[in-house]
Specification:
alpha/beta; ten-stranded mixed β-sheet; six-stranded parallel β-sheet; 19 helices; binds adenosine-5'-diphosphate-glucose; Trehalose-6-phosphate synthase; alpha,alpha-trehalose-phosphate synthase (UDP-forming) activity; Glyco_trans_20
Length: about 525
C-alpha cells in the first residue's frame, strides 16, 4: 500500500522541516563531515525520501562559514547511497533569525502554548518578524521545488516552526484567495500542501492566549490537509479555527474548515516507529554488549531490577515528577531498596533557553536528592546519564529493563513508549505510561497508566508494575506489541499519504491533479 502511494507521489514530494536529516559541518580546510540522523522523525522521513527522488528543505544548522557554502544550497544525500539519492536544500539563517524564529517564537511561545504551559510562554514582540521572515524563506524554497517537480507536487510540512508557510506558499503560487489556482508557474505551480503538527493542539481556552493567534490559524489554513496525532487535537484545532478567526466555516463532523475559498481537511494519524528495525537492533550483539557493559560500568548488580526512562531534557517530559514517584516508592516500600534501579537517559536540548537550563538543574537536583536519601555502598537508586547512546545501545537498554517509564506532563505522541514495546524480547517489561501523552490514546488500555503529578498514585503504579504476575505482564506486553506493530512507521506514512490522496482527489484513489 505504501509503495503504491509513494509511486503515485513519485518525484513530486517536497518535505519541509526545521531539522535536517543530515548535518554538514564545513571545516576551514574545505573538509566536510556529515552527521547521520538519530531516531525519531527525520530518520523515518529519510527512508521515505530514499524511495522517491524528491527535495527536502530544512534549516542548514551545521558549522559553516557563509563564505564556504555560498551558493551551495543544495546537496545530494544520503552521502553513502547514490542509488537512493535525493536533494537536501539548506536555508542559511543568520544568528538573529535563529534567535527570533527558533528560540523565541517556536520554542518560547508556540511550544509551551501548545503544551498548555502558559506560565512558560515568553513575550517576544520583534521575534515575530524573524519567524515570519524565516517562514517566508521556507515558502520561497517550497514554491521553487514544487514548480521544478516532475509529477504533481506534494509539499509535506512539519511542525510548529512552519505555521505561516502554507499561506505564504499560496501567495506565491497565485492560488491565494480566489479558490482556484491561476497557475502562474505552469500546471504544477499550485501544489497540494499537507502539514503534520507533531505536538498537541491545546484547547481554545489555552490557544486564545497566543499573541498572534489569527496569523497562525490563517497560515495553517493554507494547507489542504492538516494532520495531528490523535482526534483530541483535531477537535481542539477545529474549535480554535471556529472561535479564533473571522470568516471560517467549520464542519466539526466532517473535520473540515472552509476559509478564503479553500477547504482544509483535518485528520488524525498517530505516528508509529520502525518496529522491525528496532527489534533487530535489540537483538544485535552490539545491544547485548551494551547491556552488559552498562550494568558493569554503572555498578548495577546483575540481579537488580531495572526501570528506564529516555527523554530530551524538556520540561514537558515529566522527569522530575517521575523521580518524585520513585522516591515515594522507595520510602514506602523499603523492600525495593537495593533491588530496583532506575536508569534515566537524558539528552540535552534547547539549553540556550533559560527554562531548559533550569529544568536540567532541577532534574540533576532530584537525582541527587533521591540518591543521597537512599544510596548504600553497593547500590544507587537512580543512574542518570546525558552521554550519547547509540540506537543499538538504546534498544538494548529497553530490552534489559523490567519497566519502561514514560511520564510526560503533556506530549504530542511520544515515540519512546513505542520503541520500548518494540524492543521487548522473550521476557518483555511493563510500560508505565502517562495519560497525558498522545500515545496513551492508542496504547493506554494495556499500559499501567499514571497521572504524572499524582505522586502517590504514580508510586503505587510503579509498585503494581514491579509486582505484576508474569501472566498479566505477558498478556499486556503482547497486546502492546500487536498495537505498535499494526501502527508502525510505514503504516503511519500510508495513513498520511492516503489522506493526501483522498484530499487531492476527493473521490478516493491516487491524486489525479
Ligand atoms: P520529541 O519531543 O523529541 O518529539 P519523542 O516522541 O519521545 O519526543 O521522540 C524522541 C526521539 O529521540 C525518540 O526516537 C528517542 O529514541 C530519541 N532519543 C531521545 N533521547 C535519546 C538519546 N539519549 N539517545 C538517542 N536517541 C534518543 C516530538 C513530539 C512527540 C512526538 C514526536 C514525533 O514532542 O510528542 O511523538 O515529535 O511526532
Amino acid at each position: 500500500d505504501l509503495d503504491r502511494l509513494l509511486a503515485a507521489v513519485g518525484d513530486g514530494l517536497v518535505v519541509a522541516s526545521n531539522r535536517q536529516p543530515y548535518r554538514h559541518d564545513y571545516g576551514d580546510d574545505g573538509e566536510v563531515t556529515v552527521d547521520r540522523p538519530t531516531g525519531g522523525l527525520t530518520a523515518g522521513l529519510d527512508e521515505v525520501m530514499r524511495r522517491v527522488d524528491g527535495t527536502w528543505i530544512a534549516w542548514g544548522d551545521g558549522e559553516a562559514d557563509a563564505a564556504v557554502v555560498d551558493g551551495d544550497d543544495t546537496v545530494s544525500v544520503p552521502p553513502d547511497d547514490a542509488e537512493h539519492s535525493y536533494a537536501l536544500r539548506r536555508l542559511w539563517l543568520d544568528e538573529d533569525e535563529v534567535e527570533g524564529y527558533y528560540y523565541e517564537v517556536a520554542n518560547q511561545v508556540l511550544w509551551p502554548l501548545c503544551h498548555a504551559a502558559l506560565g512558560t510562554v515568553e513575550s517576544c514582540g520583534d521575534a515575530w518578524v524573524d519567524y515570519r521572515r524565516v517562514n517566508d524563506q521556507f515558502a520561497d524554497a517550497m514554491a521553487d521545488a514544487a514548480a521544478d517537480a516532475d509529477g504533481d507536487p506534494l509539499v509535506w510540512l512539519h511542525d510548529y516552526h512552519l505555521a505561516l508557510a502554507p499561506r505564504q506558499v499560496r501567495e506565491r503560487t497565485g492560488a491565494e484567495g480566489s479558490g482556484e489556482s491561476r497557475h502562474v508557474g505552469g500546471p504544477s505551480a499550485d501544489p497540494t500542501l499537507a502539514h503534520t503538527w507533531h505536538i498537541p493542539w491545546p484547547g481554545w481556552d489555552t490557544f486564545r492566549a497566543c499573541p498572534n493567534r489569527a496569523a497562525i490559524l490563517d497560515g495553517l489554513l493554507g494547507n489542504d490537509l492538516l494532520v495531528f496525532h490523535v482526534p483530541r487535537y483535531c477537535e481542539a484545532f477545529l474549535r480554535s479555527a471556529d472561535r479564533g478567526l473571522d470568516g471560517t466555516a467549520v464542519d466539526f463532523d466532517a473535520g473540515t474548515v472552509d476559509y478564503r475559498g479553500r477547504t482544509t481537511t483535518v485528520r488524525a494519524a498517530p505516528m508509529g516507529v520502525p518496529v522491525d528495525r528496532i527489534r533487530e537492533q535489540a537483538d544485535s550483539a552490539e545491544a547485548a554488549g551494551f547491556r552488559a557493559a552498562f550494568r558493569k560500568n554503572r555498578g548495577i548488580d546483575r540481579d537488580t531490577r531495572l526501570g528506564v526512562g529516555v527523554d530530551r531534557l524538556d520540561y514537558t517530559k515529566g522527569i522530575v515528577q517521575r523521580l518524585d514517584a520513585i522516591e515515594r516508592l522507595l520510602a514506602e516500600r523499603p523492600a525495593y531498596r537495593g533491588e530496583f534501579t532506575f536508569v534515566q537517559v537524558g539528552t540535552e536540548s534547547r539549553s540556550a533557553i533559560p527554562a531548559y537550563a533550569d529544568y536540567q538543574d532541577r532534574v540533576e537536583a532530584a537525582v541527587e536528592r533521591v540518591n543521597d536519601r537512599f544510596a548504600t555502598d553497593d547500590w544507587r537508586p537512580v543512574v542518570y546519564t546525558t552521554d550519547y547512546v547509540s540506537d543499538e545501545g538504546l534498544a538494548g537498554l529497553y530490552r534489559e529493563a523490567d519497566l519502561g517509564v514514560v511520564s510526560p506532563v503533556r506530549d504530542g505522541m511520544n515515540l519512546v513508549a513505542q520503541e520500548f514495546v518494540a524492543a521487548g524480547g522473550d521476557d518483555p517489561g511493563v510500560l508505565v505510561l502517562s495519560d497525558q501523552a498522545g500515545v496513551h490514546d492508542v496504547l493506554g488500555e494495556h499500559a499501567v497508566s499514571v497521572r504524572p503529578h499524582d505522586t502517590e498514585g504514580f508510586a503505587a503504579a510503579l509498585d503494581d508494575a514491579l509486582s505484576m504476575s508474569e501472566r498479566e505482564r505477558r498478556r499486556r506486553a503482547n497486546a502492546l506489541a500487536d498495537g505498535v506493530e499494526d501502527d508502525d512507521l510505514d503504516s503511519w506514512l500510508a495513513d498520511v499519504l492516503g489522506a493526501v490522496a483522498s484530499v487531492a482527489s476527493p473521490d478516493g484513489g491516487v491524486p489525479t491533479r
